[in-house]
Specification:
Blueprint lengths: L19 E2 L5 E2 L5 E4 L5 E5 L5 E6 L4 E3 L4 E7 L7 E7 L2 E2 L3 E4 L4 H13 L25 E3 L13 E2 L13 E2 H17 L1 H6 L13 H15 L9 E6 L16 E6 L1 H18 L4 H20 L7 H7 L15 H15 L3 H5 L2 H4 L15 H11 L7 H19 L18 H19 L2 H14 L24 H5 L48 H23 L14 E4 L2 E4 L6 E6 L4 E6 L3 E3 L4 E8 L6 E8 L1
Parallel strand pairs: 2-10, 11-15
Antiparallel strand pairs: 1-3, 3-7, 4-5, 4-8, 6-7, 8-9, 8-10, 11-12, 13-14, 14-15, 16-17, 17-20, 18-19, 18-21, 21-22
Helix pairs in contact: 1-16, 2-4, 2-5, 2-16, 5-6, 5-8, 6-8, 8-11, 11-12, 12-13, 13-14, 13-16, 14-16
């Protein structure tokens, strides 16, 4: 059995399914490595290019998963750490190539970031960077109409506004604030978490002068469009910019010349801009100070509008009943905006240090110790604020206690998410199958990674890797859900550019929606009605095979954090988020904390609800009261400077 020495990252023909499901992109040398085996066997082997057995291990006990109709056994080959490309052999069945590397996910991460570049609106995809997927620019959006649902005292039906840029949302050419906001925030948050890594990660796009990072430059492309969606006369933000109807399934951007409209200002969209712009203002402060100032001004203006209009909800059916012309594009309905208020309040608190943003919506009461966070999604955004508080809150005196409570909520949520891994036949943390379920798998993996960052509990990190493995092939369909990356990937996504560009392979780096037993597209040909296998690789299937920017952004968050962590030892770049780390260096034995490299004037420990629970003066040791999460603060002698660290006592 001869193996290819290279991974085929741009497949143009569908590979036959395998009875052994693996992460088709790769496994980290030092990380967990699991495969799912669907054949009856007691053991499995790893083979080299020549077909020689290089490692053998037992299979786990067989378990039946009703969601997939499979009896599966786990093959744990984590102890095999030799870089290379191998195959797994069990019961006479061979897997797709298995790649083991120090940095296995860099290429798929780069590809997904570049996927946003391929999906830019008002932009020509040209030059050597485009590869086979060149296209002319479409949708300049320099004369956008104002829909009757969006008219105001200044902007009327006769008005035409400029709103170029941004990304096409999914398979269609609409630009929607809810999905753009969470996607832009995700790229910004990832950059904030690991700026040194992303300043040097080149994804293969044309050169740009403003910022060093390709990731940050891509986020700015969307951010600048989002700012154009704000009415300068009152601060409100339009919910979406679309045509009245979807174009044909193979119409390219330049050929879609239908009138485009901005539709209804909404409280949700306005708060989403406030939150995203406030986060951007912090990141850009030392890089693009003028844009930083503009972002903060836009965020404040949007917050003020939302406070005056707290219940302007975008409900598509209501718009169709009350306004003409009728708009038939993506609805992105949102009937609960309390989460957007919390998200925006958290971001503005961090941007300004003004706690009136938090108290205005009772954020301290909402961020309660021991509560669960929401699962992440464009309609459930409260956790975005918690993640920002967790990552940045210790740097702001007004947000320190909220940061501790945010940590507690995120860990509680991740602990619930990771439950069930040991009994699930595919070793999956808690999730399910519905519209865009792949987004939930990626976002839940990111929550688990953050719980590892906060606590140092490696079980959380392993759960995050499980989610990544699922999305890259270790699932019941046997597909890697990222176009062009893996041995068996989607070839026919519901994506107009891929359908109409004349290129056999789809645009690479797009994340499709994944199994969905709802099958709302009513397409023929689904290979299975079982929930975990209700996936159809056909352009007809917008319910399971449509890419979307929020799906890509979620997986970029997860793969990005795991990649920057894997890169840190080899590159010399300090890992931006490591377990139990902070500006204060310490060691922990039981509940006894010892400070390293400093003789502090005073040491203080605070519980997650902000209570002082331990203190000591002129000594470098502190006895913590027991298990839990603590914020430890050390006062440097002489300078009066404060050093901080989060400490988890297991």
């Amino acid at each position: 059995m001869i193996l290819s020495t290279l991974m085929c990252f741009l497949a143009t023909a569908a590979a036959e399914p395998s009875a052994i499901h693996v992460n088709q992109v790769g496994y980290a040398t030092q990380g967990p490595k699991l495969a799912v085996v669907l054949v009856a066997a007691d053991s499995a082997s790893l083979l080299d290019e020549a077909g020689t057995v290089v490692w053998r291990g037992p299979l786990g006990v067989p378990r039946f998963w009703d969601a997939a109709g499979d009896t599966a056994r786990l093959f744990d080959f984590s102890a095999f750490r030799t870089p290379g490309i191998w195959r797994i052999l069990a019961g006479g069945e061979a897997s797709f190539p298995v790649r083991i590397a120090e940095r296995p996910w860099d290429e798929v991460l780069k590809g997904m970031v570049k996927g946003f570049w391929y999906n830019r609106a008002s932009y020509a995809i040209q030059g050597s960077e485009a590869g086979a997927w060149t296209r002319t620019a479409g949708h300049p959006d320099t004369a956008v109409r104002v829909h009757t649902s969006a008219v105001g005292p200044v902007r009327t039906k006769a008005s035409r506004i400029r709103s170029p840029g941004g990304w096409y949302d999914a398979g269609d050419y609409g630009k929607y604030l809810p999905s753009a906001a969470i996607s832009t925030w995700s790229l910004l948050h990832l950059y904030r978490s690991a700026s040194s890594f992303f300043d040097t990660l080149a994804v293969g796009v044309p050169a740009h002068a403003e910022v060093a990072s390709d990731l940050l430059d891509e986020a700015l492309w969307s951010l600048r469009w989002m700012l154009t969606m704000q009415d300068p006369d009152d601060g409100g933000v339009y919910h979406k910019l679309t045509t009245l109807n979807f174009p044909g399934d193979a119409v390219l951007p330049a050929a879609d010349r239908s009138d485009r409209y901005v539709v209804q200002k909404s409280t949700a969209a306005t708060l989403e801009l406030a939150a995203t712009a406030a986060k951007a203002s912090r990141i850009l402060k030392g890089r693009l100070p003028g844009l930083s100032d503009s972002c903060l001004a836009a965020a404040r203006s949007a917050w003020a509008w939302a406070r005056l209009h707290p219940r302007v909800l975008h409900i598509e059916d209501s718009l169709k009943e009350n306004y003409l012309p009728v708009v038939n594009s993506g609805p992105y309905d949102d009937t609960d905006v309390s989460d957007e208020f919390d998200w925006a309040a958290a971001e503005l608190l961090l941007a300004t240090g003004n706690d009136t943003f938090a108290t205005a919506v009772a954020l301290p009461q909402r961020v309660a110790v021991g509560d669960y966070a929401n699962w992440l999604g464009w309609a459930d955004t409260r956790s975005l604020g918690l993640l920002s508080l967790s990552l940045e809150g210790a740097e702001s005196p007004k947000a320190t206690n909220l940061a501790c409570a945010a940590d507690s909520m995120l860990v509680a949520t991740a602990r619930d998410l990771r439950s069930g891994r040991t009994t699930n036949p595919y070793h999956l943390p808690k999730a399910g199958f519905w519209w865009s379920a792949n987004t939930a798998y990626a976002n839940n993996g990111f929550l688990c990674w953050n719980a590892w960052r906060i606590t140092g509990d490696t079980a959380f990190r392993s759960a995050a890797v499980d989610m990544l493995d699922y999305l890259l092939g270790r699932n019941a369909t046997g597909y890697s859900f990222v176009t062009g990356f893996g041995s068996r990937t989607p070839l026919h996504p519901h994506h107009r550019i891929s359908n109409g560009d004349g290129v056999t392979a789809p645009v690479p780096g797009l994340v499709v929606a994944g199994p969905n037993p709802g099958r709302e597209d009513d397409c023929d040909g689904y290979p299975s009605l079982l929930p975990a296998k209700s996936y159809l690789d056909d352009a007809c299937s917008y319910a399971t095979n449509e890419p979307a920017i929020n799906q890509s952004a979620a997986l970029i968050l997860l793969a990005g954090e795991l990649s920057q962590e894997a890169a840190a030892p080899a590159s010399g770049i300090a890992a931006a988020a490591s377990p139990v780390a902070g500006a204060l260096l310490f060691s922990l034995r039981g509940t006894q904390l010892s400070v390293r490299g400093l003789a502090p004037e005073r040491l203080e420990a605070f519980s997650v609800d902000g209570r002082l629970v331990a203190a000591a003066s002129r000594i470098n040791a502190l006895a913590l009261p027991g298990r839990g999460l603590f914020l430890v603060r050390a006062l440097e002698p002489g300078s009066g400077r404060v050093r901080l660290a989060r400490v988890a006592v297991p």
